[in-house]
Amino acid sequence: MMNTHARAHVRGRGPQPIPGPSIIISIENLDIEDHTSDDNESENEDTTTIAPSLSRKEKRKKRKPRNLPTPPSSDSTKSTISTSTDPSSNSNTEAPLSKAKPHKKNNPSTTISIPTPLNSPMPPGANTLYPLLVCSLGNPGSAYANTLHSAGHTVLNEIATRGMYTPFSKGLSGLVSRPNTTRYKLSLTGGYHKAADVGLVEGEDDFVLWQSTTLMNVSGGSVRKAWTAFEKEQRARGMEGRLVVVHDELEAALGKVSVKDGGASPRGHNGLKSCQASLSGVKWWRVGVGIGRPESREASVVSKYVLSKMNRGEQASIENAAYGVLKVLRDIQEGKK
């Protein structure tokens, strides 16, 4: 009995089915695994022949690595620098490292051009000064001296007195005052004595002052004669002279100085009318000195006013106008007018 029970016990533990591992092994040996491999092979064959369409997200992922900058090697850096500095490089050469423009101060080829004005007042020759014949209009004689109508004579007397001019004397069909070019020396025994006639010093006014000795209304003829003689003198010196006429200006305030072209309207001034008739074809300037005018416009009142003697205030205003006249004369001499 003991043996039978033992055999039964052994029999019961003998031929029993093996769990899980034997089943897995049998599944691996089925034909299904072969179909799966065939499908994988077919998929591999398709990917090698036709690329599947990618989504936008996948395309971006593929593009990004391409745009990432790659650190240049030492050789490529050297070649880039050398080609950018080579002046003979073609258009395919890489752009320079810096696009900043060179500063103007460091650019030796930079030049500044100043445009030349079209209407330059400067006469030919940078330092040319024109000698002037300055004529004043007025009535002659003591009866008409120091009258408002003879304000031009008063102005020229003031210029001659305050400047270095000779006293007025007869010449050029009138009265002439020229620059005093005589120089004197002081001696301990003999006092002042004449040293030499040095002529005009550079920078001094080259003016010849001339006063008419004819009546105002017919003064044009004597002005023309004086100008003809003066022009001849200047040509002998190799100079080009200019003519200026100083006169009283009834329509301007007392002592006011104005300058006009000789051909401008005389505005009823008979002396200017006579000059315009006699100086046809001559370029000349006229400088007016204001004497004011009476309130009445009647001819008799105006005539009495201009022929009256100046009082102290009026004479002082006319004499002070000489400074303004002198400035205008210098502008004409320098070619600024």
TrEMBL record:
<feature type="compositionally biased region" description="Basic residues">
    <location>
        <begin position="1"/>
        <end position="12"/>
    </location>
</feature>
<comment type="similarity">
    <text>Belongs to the PTH family.</text>
</comment>
<dbReference type="InterPro" id="IPR018171">
    <property type="entry name" value="Pept_tRNA_hydro_CS"/>
</dbReference>
<keyword id="KW-0820">tRNA-binding</keyword>
<feature type="compositionally biased region" description="Polar residues">
    <location>
        <begin position="107"/>
        <end position="117"/>
    </location>
</feature>
<keyword id="KW-0694">RNA-binding</keyword>
<dbReference type="GO" id="GO:0004045">
    <property type="term" value="F:peptidyl-tRNA hydrolase activity"/>
</dbReference>
<keyword id="KW-0378">Hydrolase</keyword>
<feature type="compositionally biased region" description="Low complexity">
    <location>
        <begin position="73"/>
        <end position="93"/>
    </location>
</feature>
<feature type="compositionally biased region" description="Basic residues">
    <location>
        <begin position="57"/>
        <end position="66"/>
    </location>
</feature>
<dbReference type="GO" id="GO:0000049">
    <property type="term" value="F:tRNA binding"/>
</dbReference>
<feature type="region of interest" description="Disordered">
    <location>
        <begin position="1"/>
        <end position="22"/>
    </location>
</feature>
<dbReference type="InterPro" id="IPR036416">
    <property type="entry name" value="Pept_tRNA_hydro_sf"/>
</dbReference>
<protein>
    <recommendedName>
        <fullName>peptidyl-tRNA hydrolase</fullName>
        <ecNumber>3.1.1.29</ecNumber>
    </recommendedName>
</protein>
<dbReference type="Pfam" id="PF01195">
    <property type="entry name" value="Pept_tRNA_hydro"/>
</dbReference>
<dbReference type="InterPro" id="IPR001328">
    <property type="entry name" value="Pept_tRNA_hydro"/>
</dbReference>
<feature type="region of interest" description="Disordered">
    <location>
        <begin position="34"/>
        <end position="120"/>
    </location>
</feature>
